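look at this one:
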Amino acid sequence: MRRTSTALLAVLLLSSCERSLPLMFNHNIRSYRITDANKDTFYDDIKHLRGLTVEEAFLLHSHLIADGLSNAFGRRPQLVGKTIGDLIEEARVEEEKSSKNSAAAAPKSN
């Protein structure tokens, strides 16, 4: 009886955190891959995890906000198949392009 209740408790605990199990054993959050199954819930899965720098967290958030805005205007962002590291790198490249364009557009003082 005691073994049965212990096993049942273990199954209940594991099933309650089923979505987070792959992340609990994967220490590199940047390698977390977005799939069709988790594309709507991946942010909830990773938001409580540590492992990103402040800059990386900012870049990830800005990328997700930009994708959400573009989705609202009809463009469908392609997140499936990418990793968190890929999203951060894309946001970093976009930020560098934006800062170069801003610097080029700024009037030069003489």
About this structure: Confidence is low (pLDDT under 50) at residues 18-25. Residues 21-103 form one domain. The CA atoms of residues 64 and 91 lie 9 Å apart. The helical segments are 2-16, 21-25, 42-46, 54-72, 84-105.
